[in-house]
Model the fold of this input.
Amino acid sequence: MLDSKIPAGKLEEKWVDYKGHCKLVNPANKRKMEVIVVGTGLAGASAAASLGELGYKVKAFCFQDSPRRAHSIAAQGGINAAKNYQNDGDSVFRLFYDTIKGGDYRAREANVHRLAEVSTNIIDQCVAQGVPFAREYGGLLSNRSFGGTQVQRTFYAAGQTGQQLLIGAYQALERQVALGNVTMYARHEMLDVVKIDGKAKGIIARNLITGELERHFGYAVLLCTGGYGNVFYLSTNAMGSNVTAAWKAHKQGAYFANPCFTQIHPTCIPVSGDHQSKLTLMSESLRNDGRIWVPKKQNDTRKANEIPEDERDYYLERRYPAFGNLVPRDVASRAAKERCDAGYGVGTSKQAVYLDYAAAIERYGKTEVSKQGLSNVSQEQIIALGKEVVKEKYGNLFDMYAKITGENPYEVPMRIYPAVHYTMGGLWVDYELQTSVPGLYALGEANFSDHGANRLGASALMQGLADGYFVVPYTLGNNLADEIYNTPIPTSHPAFEAAEKAVADRIHTLKNINGKQSVESFHKRLGKIIWNECGMSRSEAGLKQAIADVQALKKEFWSDVKIPGEINEYNPELDKANRVADFIELGELMCVDALNRNESCGGHFREEYQTPDGEALRDDENFMYVAAWEAKGEHEWQLHKEELKYDVIKPSQRNYK
Amino acid sequence: MSHNTMNLKLKVWRQKNANTTGAFKTYEVNDISDEMSFLEMLDVLNEKLIVTGDEPIAFDHDCREGICGMCSLYIDGKPHGPWQANTTCQLHMRAFKDGDTITIEPWRSNAFPIVKDLTVDRGAFDRIIQAGGYVSVNTGNAVDGNSLPIEKAKADESFAAAMCIGCGACVAACKNSSAMLFLSAKVSHLALLPQGEPERKSRVLNMVAQMDKEGFGSCTNTGACEAACPKEISIANIARLNKEYLRAGLTAE
Done:
């Protein structure tokens, strides 16, 4: 049985108690301790900066050319915090409750409560750093709503909250670089964890410019390397986002938890052709004001604006009157798929639904008319005023849509379809964010802990920053306090040598395959298998077939992949080959996990397990556990279960009606 | 939506690494759909090069949705290509027509040395931020976020400057390779907020000194940077930077 090290005591006192009693490292000792942080997104940059501020000697790594590029930057909508600035009934408990419920009762109560507690500190910290959040005319912070909640607790900076929060963390990080507390290794990729006496004591990193392998020692290794959505090839993740660091950790003994819990985001720009390299998200915040619909008639070929009001099916409002267009992501995605599969889809591919702003534009226009005290205004003027308001709120998103599709979303409804966006699964961690390998931690999207089977909107930024700014600075100290007696290990140690050799051998093997097919072509094929069988809906037969297909693909990859260029130079194709090789192995584990979980919950929808009206049917009796997988060998994993105990919340069928 | 395809000629800068000289090489790509993004068109070319045993063209890119600031091509003499307020990754092929010849170069600036082909090193920008582009506040020191109201107009103006994605198009567009737009965006972002006030003077002096050290050229106010900026950072920020710099210099202790 896995020990999650959840402190005893009442739920709301656990974290306070932990902080009051955890071990500390004195400042003089911190200065002697090197800590490795891999990844510089919200979790990594905030952790590296905070640990640097505390006095640790931090080495931070990212594969991009600058830490500011990490994919957290692309988050659009916002960040949740239980500030209750709107006086609309929000509280730490309610944010905790919404997150547990939104995650379909597959997340750990203690972790989620801690997340809700520190959420308020995050906003304060970011404001102090100069993050320019949206404000009201009175000068105070502005909020909006997001899916799965009935309060306004989302803080935002237009449609680029992620960028502003990341720049805040990046600036804090660069300040520590300037002070000499953090050494930054950009264009470096971690290719293995080095373990000595069962503990993580360093990494092997590849300098992506020269191709050289480097050995780095650290008293602890923090993986803040994001999610694995790119296993699907097409996703809203950045092109470089990958699972390699997490997967190497997994191969070194870190359990991988709930890999089948992946999030399909309901509002993305639909696929336009085979050339497509990535998908673009349209922020969930658009569901605040936009209305989602399809024609009531199947295979309707009329243009959206030609379809009269009473021939439109606002299916989310129809099915879920209480939450309407703001149901959680998994519910909204499945509902879109259901309509399209039934023949009501729109656009040339018929794999899309409308997200319509006409009503919102008119509503905002009328508000403006009364605000400005105008009279005798024509309908055209109302619409023009409304468009101005919508432009201020969502302008950059509308522009982005227009650039990609060539259509003007102020005039015609946007076409949207679900796409892979986030992965709730990840490295198993205990309450201290430590993986099953001592000394190895996982933060942010790279771990599994807070979102259960479905993440609510605006909660990813919250979790990344919570882990980095407010959790790991305490929990790391609690463990490093015992390490002060150990002197640093020189990187000439045999364990470093062996790890470097293993990495070098693998690179040579890959390079020397000299096959005929490009890395990209394998990645595309992997993506199709996983999307079709382990995407929005899954079945026993499909998953079994997918496992066989992925195994065959792995064999083909390792005998026929073609990597141009040299090893000891800047070679993006080689970098990609390393990553795709790991995605293939992960793809198999995702299917194994999805096959094991004989229930539907959150983003994991097994066709065999649904209610008569098509909602996810959980099986709490048999599956109220975290599935943590231990790598045992080629195509082999052992399942470890962590029982989920709900002391405070009583699990029920999620109801958004 | 109509789908047209086109055949194109590409003149691409190829350079093995920072220590070798580069040259243009011409390639042909066929049946390119106008629905593709510019980088997807390059993907198609690279796929062809890999399969035929050539080396693919190296170019920086990551988010492909115009926010990470990693993509950086000089297309037909313009940073990020022909569209206004746009990054290379958001440029779509409907901007071109059948038979076009497209010239693709890396950012050209001594402060951005070439890594390979179209990839450059923009580490100078990180070092400018290290010189003072932050508020010195350790984690845990913050007061309540609403304890200090900020005038909406100022907050909005600060946000408009903070939209900079650090791509370097402003440097690439400038005949002197000046980094003034980038620097002024950061100085403005923080100078407009009360949180940035305590370090207002030292920040601008130190950041300008670092910019000069990196080898960026001088600003002559021609506005090429503003025209090329994918996030439409206003040149008014440069005026504010100059004011901040003067103020800091004249009132220093």
Q: What stands out?
A: The radius of gyration of chain B is 21 Å. Chain B has two domains: 5-105, 122-251. Chain B touches chain A through 81 residues (CB under 8 Å).
